[in-house]
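Spend some time on the protein that follows and explain the fold to me:
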Amino acid sequence: MLTPVPIKMKDGALIDYVITLYGKRLRWTTLITDFDPPHTFADVQLRGPYAYWHHSHTFAETDEGTMMTDEVHYAMPFGALGELGHELIVKNQLSRIFDFREQQIEAMFRPSDSAQQEERRVVDFHK
């Protein structure tokens, strides 16, 4: 994270990151949009590895707790080469990233009663 914390989440907030992709450091800047706490917010990539990136986060109250849903729409750069990279690498990489995030969120917020039903994330990847 390059943006100083705590980050004031609001429409128009800019968040700067550095990510490492195969040993190369890349800047990634996102803009927070559609900020409607506690229901939803979205971020769009202004600078980063994708030709297009829109990630919405939705939170809904359920009988078991809060259901968090992610929906990601993105496009690869570099035309046919980018599409090949998507098929060979990127779609699996994104699945691993969201699986890791799911594990971290569950570890932080899982109810102490293990008999309660687990919440599952929904990730919708679109090209």
Remarks:
- The first helix runs from residue 79 to 109.
- Residues 114-127 have pLDDT under 50 and may be disordered.
